[in-house]
Write a structure and sequence with these properties.
Elements (H helix, E strand, L loop, with lengths): L18 E2 H21 L4 H23 L1 E4 L3 E7 L2 E6 L3 E4 L5 E6 L3 E4 L3 E4 L5 E12 L2 H6 L4 H17 L18 H16 L4 E13 L1 H40 L7 H16 L15
Antiparallel strand pairs: 1-5, 2-5, 3-4, 3-6, 7-9, 8-9, 9-10
Helix pairs in contact: 1-2, 4-5, 6-7
Length: 299
């Protein structure tokens, strides 16, 4: 019978006790000066032997204890304080700091980090293979989670970025010529916002927050790039033709309406059809039309 494993408890950052290292440095220098004075004033008299021996052993021990407690924290850096493996808090005060020497100190950077992922091959929503890459700006928000809830938080970030990019890339099509749906190429703001939410959800376990992210590379995979380019060109031509025809029809309709309303000319059905055909040729033709002047004179 298998034994149930206890669930992992999530760590939470809290402030650790520490004091100014500059104050303890003054104490350290005072004790060192006292030790030098003790050694310099010892003249070997029997009454001074006891105090000299006590001072020689106790003062150096105190100096060693104080010296072991010093540590330095730079700006945008923190130190996780532990006591025999137990988390006691995080010190975010930069400068020279001091804690008891038997407490462990693990420094961790809370600065912003920039990661550019490798180009990943993903199938989009329509099954087309595409290449996609992203840049992510992230930082450590909770030092306790980053250090104690995952084994290696930096490696964890890289793996989750790849997983999130693959997930987002498969949710949307690469492109839509009709502009009727959200696409990877045409909806940058929405895709980037969803990618950021996805990453923050995945990295919450490690105490990591994502400040910004965005796609840096997006293209069809080389094996279908040529075919997809031809399809895009064909779709663009069809869309342009459709717009051209729609505009030509509206212009012909407007011309016939105004001719009729202003009584410029009265057209029967045959002449109306001929005029419509001529106007459509003029408006939709790719080449400049050559007008033919009808003088009404028979040869």
């Amino acid at each position: 019978m298998n034994e149930a494993h206890p669930a992992m408890t999530s760590s939470r950052e809290r402030a650790a006790w520490s004091t100014s290292g500059y104050l303890m440095l003054v104490v350290f220098l005072a004790l060192a000066f006292l030790l030098v004075v003790r050694i310099g004033t010892f003249n070997g008299e029997s009454g001074q032997v006891g105090s000299f021996v006590g001072g020689v052993f106790l003062l150096p021990l105190a100096l060693i204890v104080i010296a072991k407690g010093f540590y330095m924290i730079q700006p945008n850096q923190a130190a996780a304080i532990t006591l025999f493996g137990s988390y006691r808090g995080t010190d975010r005060n930069h400068g020279l700091r001091w804690v008891w020497p038997w407490m462990g100190k693990t420094r961790i950077s809370v600065r912003a980090n920039n990661v550019v992922s490798e180009k990943l091959k993903v199938n989009d929503l329509r099954g087309n293979p595409i290449e996609i890459a992203t840049t992510v700006v992230w930082r450590v928000a909770d030092t306790a989670q980053a250090l104690f809830d995952v084994d290696d938080y930096k490696a964890f970030v890289f793996v989750q970025i790849e997983s999130a990019v693959r997930s987002i890339g498969s949710r949307y099509p690469y492109d839509d010529i009709e502009h009727m749906e959200v696409t990877l190429r045409g909806s940058h703001d929405q895709v980037n916002a969803e990618l950021r939410d996805e990453l923050n959800s995945r990295l919450q376990t490690a105490g990591i927050t994502v400040d910004s992210c965005g796609l840096t590379h997006l293209a069809y995979a080389p094996e279908i790039a040529g075919a997809m380019l031809r399809r895009q060109q064909a779709e663009a031509v069809i869309a342009a033709r459709r717009k051209l025809v729609e505009g030509a029809v509206s212009m012909v309709e407007m011309a016939l309406t105004q001719l009729s309303e202003k009584n410029v000319v009265h057209l029967d059905d045959d002449r109306r059809a001929a005029m419509v055909a001529n106007l459509m040729v003029v408006l939709c033709g790719e080449r400049d039309t050559q007008p033919v002047v009808n003088t009404g004179m028979a040869s």
